[in-house]
Amino acid sequence: MGRVIEILSVLDEMYPNAECELNHTNSLELIVAVMLSAQTTDKSVNILTENLFKKYKTPIDYANADLLQLQNDLKRIGLYKNKAKNLKRMGQLLIDNFDSKVPSSQVELESLPGVGRKTANVVLSVWYNIPRIAVDTHVDRISKRLKLAYLNDSVYQVEEKLMRKIPKNRWSDIHHKMIFFGRYHCTSRKPNCDNCKLKEICRYPNI
Length: 207
Description:
This protein is mainly alpha-helical.
Protein backbone atom coordinates (compact mmCIF):
# COMPACT_ATOMS: atom_id res chain seq x y z
CA MET A 1 0.00 0.00 0.00
CA GLY A 2 2.97 2.28 0.64
CA ARG A 3 3.98 2.14 -3.02
CA VAL A 4 0.49 3.11 -4.14
CA ILE A 5 0.45 6.10 -1.78
CA GLU A 6 3.85 7.18 -3.10
CA ILE A 7 2.69 6.93 -6.72
CA LEU A 8 -0.50 8.87 -6.04
CA SER A 9 1.44 11.55 -4.20
CA VAL A 10 3.93 12.04 -7.05
CA LEU A 11 1.19 12.15 -9.68
CA ASP A 12 -0.77 14.67 -7.59
CA GLU A 13 2.32 16.86 -7.37
CA MET A 14 3.19 16.59 -11.06
CA TYR A 15 -0.27 16.98 -12.59
CA PRO A 16 -2.66 18.66 -10.13
CA ASN A 17 -4.98 19.82 -12.92
CA ALA A 18 -4.99 16.81 -15.24
CA GLU A 19 -8.23 16.36 -17.16
CA CYS A 20 -9.61 15.00 -20.41
CA GLU A 21 -7.83 16.72 -23.31
CA LEU A 22 -10.43 15.87 -25.93
CA ASN A 23 -12.46 18.98 -26.76
CA HIS A 24 -16.22 18.55 -26.24
CA THR A 25 -19.25 20.49 -25.03
CA ASN A 26 -21.77 17.65 -24.60
CA SER A 27 -21.96 13.88 -24.18
CA LEU A 28 -22.37 13.18 -27.90
CA GLU A 29 -19.26 15.17 -28.77
CA LEU A 30 -17.35 13.37 -26.01
CA ILE A 31 -18.27 9.85 -27.09
CA VAL A 32 -17.51 10.70 -30.73
CA ALA A 33 -14.14 12.20 -29.81
CA VAL A 34 -13.18 9.17 -27.70
CA MET A 35 -14.21 6.81 -30.50
CA LEU A 36 -12.12 8.78 -32.97
CA SER A 37 -9.10 8.79 -30.65
CA ALA A 38 -8.38 5.08 -31.12
CA GLN A 39 -4.85 4.79 -32.54
CA THR A 40 -4.83 8.56 -33.03
CA THR A 41 -3.54 11.38 -30.84
CA ASP A 42 -5.93 13.64 -28.94
CA LYS A 43 -4.33 16.60 -30.71
CA SER A 44 -5.23 15.19 -34.14
CA VAL A 45 -8.78 14.46 -32.99
CA ASN A 46 -9.23 17.99 -31.66
CA ILE A 47 -8.10 19.47 -34.97
CA LEU A 48 -10.58 17.29 -36.85
CA THR A 49 -13.56 17.76 -34.53
CA GLU A 50 -13.32 21.54 -34.66
CA ASN A 51 -15.12 21.37 -38.01
CA LEU A 52 -16.79 17.97 -37.57
CA PHE A 53 -18.87 19.13 -34.60
CA LYS A 54 -20.12 22.12 -36.57
CA LYS A 55 -21.43 19.79 -39.27
CA TYR A 56 -22.74 16.89 -37.15
CA LYS A 57 -24.59 18.14 -34.07
CA THR A 58 -27.11 15.39 -33.28
CA PRO A 59 -27.44 11.60 -33.61
CA ILE A 60 -29.70 12.10 -36.63
CA ASP A 61 -26.92 14.01 -38.38
CA TYR A 62 -24.66 10.98 -38.09
CA ALA A 63 -27.43 8.49 -38.89
CA ASN A 64 -28.44 10.36 -42.06
CA ALA A 65 -24.90 11.12 -43.18
CA ASP A 66 -23.71 9.85 -46.54
CA LEU A 67 -21.14 7.22 -45.58
CA LEU A 68 -18.59 8.25 -48.21
CA GLN A 69 -18.90 11.89 -47.16
CA LEU A 70 -18.50 10.97 -43.49
CA GLN A 71 -15.43 8.93 -44.38
CA ASN A 72 -14.03 11.93 -46.22
CA ASP A 73 -14.69 14.12 -43.17
CA LEU A 74 -12.64 11.71 -41.05
CA LYS A 75 -9.95 10.98 -43.63
CA ARG A 76 -7.09 12.70 -41.81
CA ILE A 77 -7.13 10.20 -38.92
CA GLY A 78 -6.44 6.47 -38.75
CA LEU A 79 -9.08 3.79 -39.30
CA TYR A 80 -11.40 6.45 -40.71
CA LYS A 81 -13.52 4.06 -42.78
CA ASN A 82 -14.39 1.86 -39.83
CA LYS A 83 -14.90 4.86 -37.56
CA ALA A 84 -17.27 6.47 -40.07
CA LYS A 85 -19.32 3.27 -40.27
CA ASN A 86 -19.51 3.04 -36.47
CA LEU A 87 -20.54 6.70 -36.08
CA LYS A 88 -23.34 6.31 -38.60
CA ARG A 89 -24.64 3.13 -36.92
CA MET A 90 -24.27 4.64 -33.46
CA GLY A 91 -26.34 7.64 -34.49
CA GLN A 92 -29.18 5.36 -35.57
CA LEU A 93 -29.00 3.24 -32.41
CA LEU A 94 -29.07 6.33 -30.21
CA ILE A 95 -32.27 7.37 -32.00
CA ASP A 96 -33.86 3.92 -31.92
CA ASN A 97 -32.90 2.76 -28.43
CA PHE A 98 -31.97 5.76 -26.29
CA ASP A 99 -34.22 8.65 -27.28
CA SER A 100 -31.25 10.29 -29.06
CA LYS A 101 -29.31 10.54 -25.78
CA VAL A 102 -25.95 9.05 -24.84
CA PRO A 103 -26.75 6.41 -22.20
CA SER A 104 -25.19 6.47 -18.74
CA SER A 105 -24.72 2.78 -18.04
CA GLN A 106 -21.77 0.55 -18.91
CA VAL A 107 -23.87 -2.14 -20.61
CA GLU A 108 -25.86 0.33 -22.71
CA LEU A 109 -22.77 2.25 -23.78
CA GLU A 110 -20.98 -0.94 -24.80
CA SER A 111 -24.00 -1.93 -26.90
CA LEU A 112 -23.09 0.89 -29.28
CA PRO A 113 -20.85 0.08 -32.27
CA GLY A 114 -17.26 1.13 -31.80
CA VAL A 115 -17.69 1.62 -28.05
CA GLY A 116 -15.58 -0.72 -25.96
CA ARG A 117 -14.91 -0.76 -22.25
CA LYS A 118 -12.32 2.02 -22.36
CA THR A 119 -14.56 4.40 -24.29
CA ALA A 120 -17.50 3.62 -22.02
CA ASN A 121 -15.37 4.25 -18.94
CA VAL A 122 -14.22 7.63 -20.26
CA VAL A 123 -17.80 8.75 -20.94
CA LEU A 124 -19.02 7.53 -17.54
CA SER A 125 -16.14 9.20 -15.73
CA VAL A 126 -15.80 12.48 -17.61
CA TRP A 127 -19.43 13.27 -18.44
CA TYR A 128 -21.49 11.44 -15.84
CA ASN A 129 -19.02 11.72 -12.93
CA ILE A 130 -19.22 7.99 -12.24
CA PRO A 131 -15.93 6.67 -10.80
CA ARG A 132 -14.07 4.71 -13.46
CA ILE A 133 -10.52 3.96 -14.55
CA ALA A 134 -10.18 3.84 -18.32
CA VAL A 135 -7.11 1.82 -19.26
CA ASP A 136 -5.60 3.17 -22.45
CA THR A 137 -2.08 2.51 -23.74
CA HIS A 138 -0.57 5.02 -21.29
CA VAL A 139 -2.36 3.70 -18.19
CA ASP A 140 -1.51 0.14 -19.18
CA ARG A 141 2.20 0.96 -19.64
CA ILE A 142 2.48 3.00 -16.44
CA SER A 143 0.68 0.36 -14.36
CA LYS A 144 3.10 -2.32 -15.50
CA ARG A 145 6.24 -0.20 -15.16
CA LEU A 146 5.30 0.88 -11.64
CA LYS A 147 4.45 -2.69 -10.60
CA LEU A 148 0.76 -2.03 -10.11
CA ALA A 149 0.09 -4.89 -12.53
CA TYR A 150 1.95 -7.86 -14.01
CA LEU A 151 3.57 -7.55 -17.43
CA ASN A 152 1.30 -10.18 -18.98
CA ASP A 153 -1.95 -8.77 -17.54
CA SER A 154 -4.71 -7.96 -19.98
CA VAL A 155 -6.20 -4.48 -20.10
CA TYR A 156 -9.17 -5.72 -18.10
CA GLN A 157 -6.88 -7.28 -15.46
CA VAL A 158 -4.98 -4.00 -15.19
CA GLU A 159 -8.25 -2.15 -14.65
CA GLU A 160 -9.34 -4.61 -11.95
CA LYS A 161 -6.04 -4.30 -10.09
CA LEU A 162 -6.04 -0.52 -10.22
CA MET A 163 -9.59 -0.44 -8.87
CA ARG A 164 -8.57 -2.67 -5.97
CA LYS A 165 -5.45 -0.70 -5.10
CA ILE A 166 -6.65 2.88 -5.61
CA PRO A 167 -9.44 4.40 -3.49
CA LYS A 168 -12.68 4.63 -5.47
CA ASN A 169 -13.00 8.38 -4.97
CA ARG A 170 -9.64 8.78 -6.77
CA TRP A 171 -10.31 6.55 -9.78
CA SER A 172 -11.36 9.21 -12.30
CA ASP A 173 -8.81 11.74 -11.08
CA ILE A 174 -5.86 9.34 -11.11
CA HIS A 175 -6.86 7.97 -14.50
CA HIS A 176 -6.18 11.39 -16.04
CA LYS A 177 -2.97 11.88 -14.08
CA MET A 178 -1.64 8.51 -15.22
CA ILE A 179 -2.42 9.46 -18.81
CA PHE A 180 -0.53 12.75 -18.42
CA PHE A 181 2.38 10.93 -16.77
CA GLY A 182 2.55 8.44 -19.64
CA ARG A 183 1.98 11.01 -22.36
CA TYR A 184 4.41 13.68 -21.19
CA HIS A 185 6.92 12.03 -18.83
CA CYS A 186 7.06 8.23 -18.77
CA THR A 187 6.77 7.90 -22.54
CA SER A 188 6.96 4.63 -24.40
CA ARG A 189 10.37 4.98 -26.03
CA LYS A 190 12.29 7.70 -24.20
CA PRO A 191 10.94 8.08 -20.66
CA ASN A 192 12.36 10.91 -18.57
CA CYS A 193 13.92 8.60 -15.99
CA ASP A 194 16.64 11.02 -14.88
CA ASN A 195 14.05 13.44 -13.52
CA CYS A 196 11.58 10.89 -12.18
CA LYS A 197 10.74 10.55 -8.50
CA LEU A 198 9.38 7.05 -9.13
CA LYS A 199 12.43 5.55 -10.86
CA GLU A 200 13.40 3.49 -7.80
CA ILE A 201 10.18 1.47 -8.00
CA CYS A 202 10.00 1.28 -11.78
CA ARG A 203 10.67 -1.78 -13.95
CA TYR A 204 12.02 0.28 -16.85
CA PRO A 205 14.30 -0.44 -18.72
CA ASN A 206 13.69 -4.08 -17.92
CA ILE A 207 10.41 -4.13 -19.86
